[in-house]
Amino acid sequence: MTRTLTSLPPRAHSIQVPTPNSQLPTQRETSSATSQSQTDIYKKNLFGGEISPSPLLPLSLSLSPTPNKKKELGFTPSIFLSDIETLESANSSLFLLLKMEDDDAAAAALAASESSVRRPKRARVSDGFAAGRSRSNGSVGEKADQTSLGEDQQSQEDLDQGSVDGSFDDFDDVGPKSKRRGTIPARKENNEQSLIDVIKYNGKLITPAVKRWFEKYESNSKSALVELLMMLFEACGTKYQLKADKLDETNVDDVVVALVNYARKVSSLYYFLMALSQMVLCYCQCYIYLCLVTECQNGPLFDQITFEKCMDYVIALSCTPPRVYRQVASLVGLQLVTSFITVAKALGGQRETTQRQLNAEKKKRNDGPRVESLNKRLSTTHEKITMIEEMMRKIFTGLFMHRYRDIDPDIRMSCIKSLGIWIVSYPSLFLQDLYLKYLGWTLNDKSAGVRKTSILALQNLYEVDDNVPSLGLFTERFCNRMVELADDIDVSVAVSAIGLLKQLLRHQLLADDLLGPLYDLLIDEPPAIRRAIGELVYDHLIAQKFSSSQSGSTGEDNGSSEVHLGRMLQILREFATDPILITYVIDDVWDDMKAMKDWKCIISMLLDENPMIELTDVDATNLVRLLCASAKKAVGEKIVPATDNRKQYYTKAQKESLEHNRREITSAMMKNYPQLLRKFLADKAKVSSLVEMIVHLKLELYSLKRQEQNFRTVVQLIKDAFFKHGEKDTLRSCIKALMFCSTESQGELQDFVQSKLKELENVLMVKLKFAIKEAEVGDDEYSLLVNLKRLYELQLATCVSNERVYEDLAAILRNLKNIDDEVVGFLLLNMYLHVAWCLHSIDNENPSEASVSSLLSKRNTLFKQLDHYLHTLLEKQEGKNRSLLTSRVCTILAETWCLLKKSRFSSTKLESLGFCPDVSTLQKFWKLCERRLYLSDETEDEDVNEEYIEEINRDIVMIAAAKLVASGTVPKDYLGPEIISHFVMHGTGVAEIVKHLITVLKKTANDAVPDIFLEALKRAYQRHMEELSKSDDESLISKSFKICKDLATRLSGTFVGAARNKHRTHLLKIVKDGVSFAFLDAPKQLSFLEGAVVQFVSKLPTSDAIDMRLTFSIPCVANSLKDVQKRSENVNTDEDPSGWRPYYTFVEHMREKYVKNDGLQEEKEANKSKRRRGRPRKARNMRGKKLFDEQDSSEEEDSISESDQEEQDEEAEDDEEELPLIHSLRSSSSRLKSLRVSQQESRGQAGTAGSVKAPSEKNA
Questions:
Q1: How large is the average pLDDT for residues 868-896?
Q2: pLDDT at residue 1073, as a whole number
Q3: Residue 728 sits in the same domain as residue 815
Q4: pTM for this one?
């Protein structure tokens, strides 16, 4: 489905980041935490990353010093919870900060986030809690700025007077005064707690606290306003103090600039800890602002001072670079509008009531004081509504219009979610295109969460019928985009969009021609999308809930079921040629369509009991398929392959429901089942599904309801169907049904079924012998083929006790030479199954000599015939017409070898039955398999079904060969490399099989893996050399060489992550032996270096390794380089420059890797030496510093992401410096040894040596 995005409006503010409108949204790229220092991660979260605090808990973080630490001061978190259950223990250290003894050094260290201590395994903030900060903490920075605990808990009177003007004196001290950790600071009495204290420690007291604040406002409005603003600042992670008496003179911009400057000056890591702890407070603030607005609706809300000042600060903070400020301010501002709407709706109700009273008084023609009072009240109420709507518009234009395009998707989601609530709650103001367009624009947002939020908002909007007339222009503008979102890359967004389309259809706002592409999603892969589309199809096309001419009949009676089934059959007619697609459609609609569970109605339609309904043959076939599929679903079976193979477990109630469904199906089918079978017994398209229905019935009900005769009739009809048809599906269904009845039925009925099975076997033997005689005299082989198919299906389910049948089958293969390949295939299959059943019947403990001797004879006969056809197919390959027999011979050979492998019978009384093929037979077997693989690659694309069959047969052959290696049936040294050499040659199916084989080999024969890999590379390279010798086509030559390189890439790719170091010896062995092979006849095979070996060289452990194994990888590379260069000594490479070119390429690659590792090691040693000297580190530029150097906020934020690479380089240095001193001493000798090797082997590497020394000189 094409995706056309709607253009977005122009930028409205400098800090906004526009959403791309050229393509569908994709996930935002995020930097890897493993490639950054922990400090950088915190800084990124502060100014450019995502912050998603838990909205569940108000809590605080107490930072307490770890005892017995002088040079370092660690901190452990303590969670303070009020009236909330304690979270899981936070035993691991949440944050580790470095603090020097000198307070001045501490300030400098905190200002430079790179100086924070980093550990290899730093505890991370868990999802279950968010860190808060303790009120017992003081400020960060100079001693003059620090305050005592008593000063931090100053009296409310001091706060009212504004003891400190525009300062940050109450920021938390890094080192608290209390020696106890994890203790809750002393709380004030409930009537003394400020708003922020209530939010922190006792969220249940928010409402009483608001009432006390309102009382305080009535006595001292300015001090109350100061408290309200400070609550906002503290939620942002700061405690900026305002003086109540100078509040009118304080400029909002000055305060906000001071807050932003503080975020720049303070340590990014420390500030992030403080800000993150306060993010939780914001969610409680949303509720407290609702209470405040509600409490103030008769006073401060309309004084144009209190809330105007609050809105000014909220809007200003929402436009600042620090992300925490924007998140807090956005949530508060959006909640204010929501709270205003609550008040406006109440006032609107009052206005309507007053207007009705006024109209009533006017009708009385009474112009007295009552009318005057009502007029005054009406005018006052209208003014309040107008005023509060102006406040809403102010926040919308000042906050929403900028933040709905914020760089943070969480902020964008909050904005769109709130807008959806506003439109639904207050349509008189917001239900107009001026506001609706933002919902339409964000349908193109690059964040899936924002798109989904917009869709859900629109769903709520379209649910209200009164809103639809005002949505006409909006729907016309964005309906195409809504349809496109049904095929969104994110499944949850697509499902939500389909729900939105249902709303549009309900209001008849969507044309039917736009729904065509949606129906293709009925067979889409994600089940959630298929279910959603199925629900839409049912509502729109089957139940026709959205049609203007709805049927008056209910969905409970038979007429409604028949109508619904008729419409369903009309849909299935579109997929009549593909039963698999029909199954998908049935599975999608089944949950919503009750008519599919109306068993009596379906059976009645099949039996033509209603003369008003006439089914065509196609409709009858589809209805039979629907009946069978619906019965499977009703008893808990899956009719569509699941995305996972997990076993499904049912609750007791679900099991009872499934059992009830089984009883219902049995009751409906019991009397009508024989009639259905008789009617469709000769129809091969319907009989298979009908026969299989019996396995979903509860057979014991036949005895309980005295329907034994119907059961016998059904069994007899199934037996007749077995001999009436020759297709695999019908034969397999008949055998499956009879075997089910023989085990699940009871008493006499079970004996009856078993006798019928024996009768079926005897009749089959008679028919088979007659068909064999006809074939011997030269008659048509069709009868023989059909009876062989019947025997094969019977032997798959049970053992055929007739001993003569095996000799008869072998005699046909010996005596008849020109038999059809399909007949030969089924002859061999039946012989293999007979041998397998004979082996199964032998007593392993006390086998009889006669049975063992008989089995040996049959085994040898089977191998003789298989060997004959193995030779025949290799000598006379006639193309595709023999591809089926080739697959059968390869598969039967592999299965027979696995069945009779020697290790299975060794040291047992059946040891003589063990068999292992010789090397020549194994080579012939693989040659035939290879021919089958190449034959599938040559299949034309004209016939899709034929191509699919060829791919399946190719995969079957590869599975059979891989099974021999994985099970240890044959030696791995020959067949293993041959199979793996085809890793990248025959598509994804074969590649997956080979990948699983490699996984098994690494578990069972890990030591042999290097030799197997190298031999596989040699086989692929030899095929390339053969192509090079016999062909002049450059495209074919380059293709074969590319296959060799791709194979090496895939095989070397199995050594990733920790496997590089774990299997380091394997990599070195492959490289070393590969080099030896390349130089066997130099320079003829030197291209093997470039085509195969170089990929493994790149996988050798590099200097990026953390532990000291890195030190050993460098000499290994150097020794390999030395070994390669020695091989070219005393050889005139100028005689054949093109032949030696791969050698020089390989050597250069090795040298680059060695020099790179050596240079990085030198830099690492220099950094260690610098730390050993104990010099204090210089404070680097803080990440996020550029935020405050420019005026354009968008450019400021973008500059951070652009500097990621530079800071990753700094991080590498930082992490290396944390290694203990002993590591530097131990690695010095290794480094010098590496340098010595480099100087001996490199020619004219003066420049390279300089580059190696450069980092050391720079660091010095």
A1: 82
A2: 87
A3: no
A4: 0.70
